[in-house]
Structure formats: C-alpha cells, structure tokens
Amino acid sequence: MNLIGHWIRNFPEPQKVAITEAFDSASLAKIRRAARLLEKLDPEQRGSMLDVEFVSTFNLEPVLPVLQLALDCLPSRAHLHLAPLDAIESHISQSETTPLQETLHARVVAWRVEELFPELLYPFSSGFPKQLASRADEVVARIGRVVNLHQKNSKGVPLFLSTIPLPTNFSNPLFAAQDRDGLFGSVGRLNQEVYELATRNDGVHVLDLAAWATSEGRGHTDATLDLIARQPLSSRGQVAISLFIARCLRPLIIPGRKALAVDLDNTLWGGVVGEDGIGGLKLGHEFPGNVHLRIQRELLELRKRGILLVLLSKNNETDAREAFSELSEMVVKWDDFAVRQVNWEQKHENLRSAARELGLGLDSFAFVDDSDYEREQMRQFLPEVLILNENSDPLHTLRSLWETDAFDSLTVTEEDRLRHRDYTARAARDVEAHQDDLDAFLRSLRMEATIEEIGPSNMDRALAMIGKTNQFNLTTRRHSRSQLQTMLEMPGSIALTLRLRDKFGDQGIVGLLLAIPDKRNHVTLAVDSFLVSCRALGRGVEDALWAVMVNRAHRQKVKRLEAEYLATPKNGMVASLYDRLGLRRIEQNSSSTRYHMEPVGPYPFPTWISLANKSDEQ
Amino acid sequence: MNNSDPLLRLLIDFFNLPPDTGSQEIRQQAIASWDSLAMVQLIADLQGTFSVEFDLAEIEKLRSYDEIYRALSSKGVSFPSPTVSRPQRTVRDERDYSE
Q: Of B53, B33, B32, B31, nearest to B43 (Cα)?
C-alpha cells in the first residue's frame, strides 16, 4: 500500500479509504466498490487517458477489475483491452487494421511456461535433453517474431514484453536445476532473449514477471483456479501483479521526480557534525555506519542517472564542508549537489529557492530527512514535495530509497546522464548573469543551435519533453508515441527539435516545436506543441526555434499560421509569448488564447545564437 | 444487512445486491451475473477472505449461500448465520425473549 499512497494522494478521503481497504483485503467486492467511487470523480481528478492492451497465454479476464483499479490509481482514466486468449501472433497481425491503434498507449504481452513451452514441465516425456534444447531454440525464435510482428503492425506503440516466471506446480524441482536444458536453465534462456530484445529495440520494455514472482513467493499463485480457468493467481496475487503492472506503465503518463533534497546529519552519516565533531560521525563498512554508506551509494546512483541532488541542512556551512573533505569514506561529494543550502533558514524556504535556482517546479522534488519536525513542516508548507521516508530510522530511509517509485523511468537517455553537469553550469551562468546586462551575457555564452527534424534518432527525447515539460509549454499536450508518429507523417507538418551548445558544452535537445497542417485547408499550419526545457529558460532559444519554423512555413507556401496558448497552473510564464513574437489575437477566454499570423520571410533569427545548419536562417 | 455475517456481506457486495437481500435469495439460478467468470472470481475471493482451499467436490457445489456456508463450516470457518446453522430458531428465540 505504501507504493500507491502517493499515487492517490490527491483523491478525496472516501475514495482513498475505499482503495486502501480494497487492496488490503484483496476482496473483489471491495475492489468493485472502490472502482464505483472513483467513477464519481471529475475527469480532471482521475488523470490522463491510458489505453492498454493485454495479450496473454493465460486467462487475465477474471483479473481485469483489479488491474483496472490499479491503473485508475496511477491516477489515470484507463481503458483496458483484452486480446483473445492464446492468440498472440494472429491478434497482433490484425492490429494494424483496428482503430484502437490510434490511441493505444501500450501493449502488454504476458506468457508463461505452461502454454509457451509446456514440454519443460515433463522433460523426460519430451525428449530431454536434445529435443528439448531444439524446442527451446524454436521458442526463442518465436519471442523474437512476436516483437517483429508488433513493430511491423503497431509502429510506435510501446511494447511491454513479460519475462517468464518459474512455474510453481511441477514435479522434480531438484533435477530442474541440474542441467542447462532443464526447466530452470531453459526458462533462463528464454528470459535472456526478452532482455536482449528490449536492449536492441527502442520502445520495447520488459515487464519482469519472473522477478516479480520470485519476490512475491508461492503465495501469489492458486493451483485450483489455474485448473478451473487457466487463471493462476490467488486474490492476493491478483492485487500484487496489478500494482506491479501499474507501476511499470506509470512512467508512460506520469513523469518521475527530477530532484531529491536530502538532509545531512543522521542521513548521509550517523550523528550530528555540529555536536559530535567529525571524529564522532558514523560512516563506513561496519554497522551502523554501513547503513549511511549505502544511503550515499543510492544517492550517487540517482545523481549519475540524472536525478539532481539538493543538500538541505541546518548546519554551519564550514562544519559541513569540512566533514565532506575530511571523511575519507564519503561516497557523495560536495560537488555532487546541484544546489547546497547549508544554513539556519527554514528548509521549505531553502527548497523553494533551490527550485527557483534550478528552474524546476516543486512537484519535481522528493525529500528525505530524519527529523519528524522537518518532514512535517515540508508536508504543510510544500505539499507538492514528495516525502520518501516516514520516520527517523536510517535503515528505514535506506529501504525507502530501495522501494520508492518516485524516480521510475523506462529509459535513461544521454541527456538525463548529463543533467547534473548542465544544471551546475546553469548555476555558474546565473552567477555571471548578475555581472553584465542580459544581452551581452547571452552573447558571451557563445550559443549555437542545431535544428533537427523529429525522427528515430531524437524520438525518445522528443517524447520525454512532450511528456514532462510543464513550464515553457504553450499547450501541454501529452502525445503518445503513436500520436506523434501520426502527426509526423502528415504531409507538410513541421516537427523540429533544437539542440544547444554553449561555452559550457553540449546542453542536448532543449526545444521542440510541432506544427501540423489544417485538415480542411492545406495552406494553414497550426502550432500543436511548442516547448523549451526548463534548463534552457531565459536564453532566447524559443526565438530561434520560432524563426526557423516560420521560415520553413514561408518556403512551404503556408498562408496562415495558427497558434494557441492553453493555460495550466504551471505555464503562466508563456502566457504572452505569442504577443511578444508578434502574432495577432483572434479569440480569448479564461483558459486559452488563440492567435494567427501570416508567415513572411525571411523571419529574423536571434542575434545572440548562431545556427549550425545555416540554410534555415533565411 | 446482517453485519455479523461476513459471508452474506461478501456475497451482497460481490454481486452488488440490495443491502437487505436475505441469504436464502442468494442462489446461482436467481442471480443473472453469477456466470462462470464470476464463479472463478468468487472462488478466489472466498479462498482469500477465509484463508481456505476448496477441494474439487466442494467447488462443484458452490452454487448458493447455503452451500458456500456449509463448505466453509466443514473447513472450520465459523460465524453465526441466521439461516444455516440455526435456521428460523434464532429469529423465534429473539421474539420470545422480547415478549
């Protein structure tokens, strides 16, 4: 239940209570009751649409109400589609022609030994070892074919391929482990193929049911139900698998937290540096210092994959710095923090100012602190911040870091891994900005923009930006891979990303502009999405993207450009962007403003950025 | 609804029946949604809620409140039921007492 506590935190109390009871009891009656209560909420409270198709070799139909509730809790307005039982290839082959393809956010393929490779349960009746080994070759090839079929027929729809759990109902378990071609070895081989396919193919992800089943233990299965209806899960198992699948799909619609703010004393080390002195701090390979060492390892791992670390400590900065430099066991270094707030101010105020400095929203932050007081204060003043730990025990803090889904993502891009460096450079830039006037400062950054079409090479980054950008985002439309693909394929659409280099290095892709032709009239182009990553705000990147788009539209003989600003609680910073860019207002109400302009070329390119591909300047 | 009878409560919730449904009314022939899919879901719910495992002969007989009650009782699950363990008598006893 801890996992979904923060998923459903914005639901009203009656719904929260019903959901908690439903999952705790695993009773279908209570699950249905919670689902009925959720249906009473407004669509905005229920989250975004999530269309998922399940294709499986075992019977998921009895589990659908549980899966539905788990996905509803993400939160999302989930639509579940169940393919006919055991018809994986034929179903996927037909899918190109079904209208569902347009809206599908994900396809899940779940299979198990009992149907995929039943001979493994009776090895000596099935020609162990030779025949069984060649049968394994066939099954491996079949898994690959399913992926190919999916990619051919459902281009752009993320595929979640399950691994194969070890079965629980079979005889001779000792022998099953003794031979490469026995039950366990062969299942391992099939699963290796699943991991290979996910590594080699963009948009193919692993739903690791094998790892899940191992951690759940035997209690998740029910042999009776399996024999009655080919539904192998106990009621508890149904809840557990549904929450697991929901967690795996969640990153498709809900971005992970981007930053973690941590406390120092009794978190990074045991003891209080200001009182115990550096010699009295506990950190090392022996208990309890090893708990803090492991916490530090987790933090460094987060930072290396692109989660920003922020230090929030009530201490004298000199004491804290000294501990970082003198404690030889420190894994996390002073410079690993993108922002350090070591002072005696309130932590929520320090976090607010760190968020401003990094250009992140408060709901991008998670927080860890051993003090009940600090956590409570954070909860009250900044409810958007997700608090990971619930008490002062360092062991509990370490467990929270192991178990949290706050930073979940299905892929880690190069941009993610370089993020810390970018933000550190940004902090340095901010300091310089005070010294000169803004124009001269921008010029001094020696910025160079590379404009690229959205295509296979930058698709993941484009989708990540569409899915995550909140502040500089004119329409906040969250497109799925297949929706984006459809727009890219419209003749006359202009879909651009902007990669920025400056004197600090390559900042990666930081801007995106997507304009699509009007269906009724091909000389009108409508801006669907226009966004700039928060780490490139205030640098005029948007002017560069806009100029390139307008010049292209002009060359394509577009007569009219239409654009709109759709207000959200977070994108107030761009409310008047189109006014500044010189578009004319044609319609306005409280939540949106519509604009138009005639693209006249050449539209001037900003003077403080140079363009790597010069042909776009005119 | 009889709040002290967890089986009755479970079945009323499970089939979304009116709260005052009597246990005698809960029979497969009388409830349209009690199909084979519901049967699988119900068995999972009963086994999970009462921590029991039904054997083959019992599963074939789980077609009404009374039959489920008997199957659970035979596995040592006990709770007061107005209709099965003490049919009618409980009601009459109460009336006598109040008079």
A: B53
